[in-house]
TrEMBL record:
Organism of derivation: Lachnospira eligens (strain ATCC 27750 / DSM 3376 / VPI C15-48 / C15-B4)
Membrane topology: Multi-pass membrane protein
InterPro entries referenced in this protein's UniProt entry, alphabetically: ABC2_TM (IPR013525), Phage_infect_YhgE_C (IPR017501), Phage_infect_YhgE_N (IPR017500), T7SS_ABC-Transporter (IPR051328)
Bilayer-spanning residue ranges: 20-38, 383-404, 424-448, 454-472, 484-503, 538-559
Gene3D superfamilies: abc type-2 transporter like domain (3.40.1710.10)
Protein name: Putative membrane protein
One MF annotation (Gene Ontology) recorded for this entry: ABC-type transporter activity
Amino acid sequence: MKNIFKIIRADLRHIKTNVIALCVIIGLTVIPALYSWFNILSNWDPYGQASTSRIKVAVVSVDKGTSLEGTELNVGDTIIDALKTNNTIGWQFVASSDEAIEGVYSGEYYAALVVPENFSKNLISFLSDSMEHPQLKYYCNQKANAIAPKITDKAKTAVQQQVNQTFIDTIVSTIAGTGDSVIKDSDKETGSLMDAVINRLTSARTTLSTYDVILNSMLAITDLTSSISSSSNSAAPQVYTQLQLQQQQLITLQALVNGNSAESLNELSSALSNQMSQIQSIMSSLTELYSDMNMDVADLSAAIKLTSGSLTQTKELLSDLETKLDNAINTLNTITEQDTYGLLSEMLNANANTLGDFLSAPVNITTEQVYAVKSYGTSASPFYTILALWFGGLILVAIMHTPVHPAPDIPADAKRYEKFFGRYFIFFAVGQLQALLITLGNLLYIGIQCYHPFLYWVACAFSSFVFTFFMYSLTVAFGNIGEALGIVLLVIQVAGSGGTFPIEVLPNAYQIIYRFLLFPYSMDALRECIAGMYRYDYIKNLAFLSIYIVVSLIIGLFLQKPFEKLNHMIERSKEKSGVML
C-alpha cells in the first residue's frame, strides 16, 4: 500500500513540474466536456418551430375551384391562405408547379406540395355518380438529408388535415344552412321534434286505453250471452218434464172418471179427452222446438267461445302494446331531461360554422406527460454525456502511459498490483475532473432539466470511474489491442445502447447484447435524475454498472502477466515499422 502512494506522488510531481504535461491534462479534461456540450446544443430543439421554420418547402395551387349548392369552393386557395399563417415550416409560395418541382430536384427546397387544378371538383365528387378521390401531389428530396424528409412528412400530414377540416366545414355549413329553415319551421309547429314524438306516443297510448275499455265491455257481453245460453239449455228439459207429468196425471184422472157411472161423468170425460189432445199437441210441438233449440244453443256456444278467445287475445296484445308505449314515452322523457339532449338540440340549432368546426375535429386528445422533459436536448443529454465520458477515458489510455517505468522516485520493489493501482490514480483523477466539468456545464451552462443535481453528478462520477478503470485494465492487460477493444466497444454502444432510438427498433443482435453493455445503465441512471425517480431504479442501474469493476479487476490483475510477452512483441513490431507510436 505504501508503494502505491509513492507512485501516486511521483506521477503528480511529474505533471506539476512539466508545463506540457499540465497542458495535456487540461486538454484531456476539457475535450470530453466540449464534445458533450456541442452535441447537446445541436440537438436542443430540432423539432421545434424555431428550427423547422427554416426548412424550405415549396407550395403552389393551380386549383380551378368548383361550386356546391351555389357556394363557390376553392380548397386550393384555402390551403394557401392557411399555410401563410403557419410558421411551423418554411413555406415558399411559388408561381408555378414547374418551379416548385425543379426546386426540389435542385436541392433548393426539401419538398414541394402541389394542389392540382381539379382538386376541389374531385373533393365533392361523391355527390355525383362518378366519385374520384382528390390527390395532393407531394415531392420530397430524400437525398438531401436523413431527418428532413421526416419533418416535411409531418408538414404534409398537417396539410392533409387542413384539407379534411376544410372539406367537412364546407359540407356541413352548406347542409346545415340549407336545412336551417326546415328545422326552424318544425320548431314553430311542435316546439321540437322530440316533443312532437312524445305527444304522438301519448295520444296513441290514450287511444289504446279507450280500446281496452271497449274490449272489457265486449268480454262482459260474451260472458252474459254464454250464461243465457247455458240457462236456456237447462230450462227446456225442465218444461218438457213438467208437461209429461201433467199428461200422466190427466191419464190417471180419466181412468178414475171411467170407473164411475157413465151418465154422471160423461161430460167430464169428454172435456178431459179434449184437454189430453191439446197437451199431446203441445208436447209434440215442444219436442220439435227443444230439438231446434239444442242445435241453436250449440252453435251459439261455439261462436261465443271463439269470440271470447279472440277478444282475450286482442286484449293481451293491446296490454302489451300499452306497456311498450309507456316504456317508449318514459325513455323519451328521460332523454329530453338529460344534459346531452339539450346540448344536441343547441348544436342542431347552432351556427352552421360551429357545427362544421365540431364535426371536422370531433375528438380532442388530453395529454398527461409522465416524467415530462422540457426539451429534446435534455432527453438526448444522457446519451451524449455518457458518450463523452467514455470518449474521455479512451483518449486517456491513448495518450498517457499505463506501464510504470523505473525512475528514482518509483520504488524498485513495487509489486505488479501496486504499480497497477498506483498508476491508475492519475487516470481516475482526470476522469473525475472530466465528469465534474461535464456536469457543471450541462446544469449551469446549457441548462438541462434536472430534478436531482447532486445524484446527477454522482452518476456521472461513478460512470467515469467505471469507464476509465475498465479501459485502463484493457490497456494494461492487452496493450494496443486493449485500446482497440475500447474503440470497438464505443462503436457498438453508440449504435446499440438505445441512446437515440428505442432498443426495440434496433436489429435483433443489438437487442441481445444490449443488456451486457455499459452505456444503458449509466444513461438510465442519468434519466432518473433528469425526469424523476421511480422506486430504486437509480440504485439498481449503478449496481449493475458496478459489476464491470469486478470484470476490470480480473482483466487488469490476472490477464496482464499471460499477455505480457505478446504485448512486448507488438511494441517491438511497432517500433520497427517506423510510422507507429
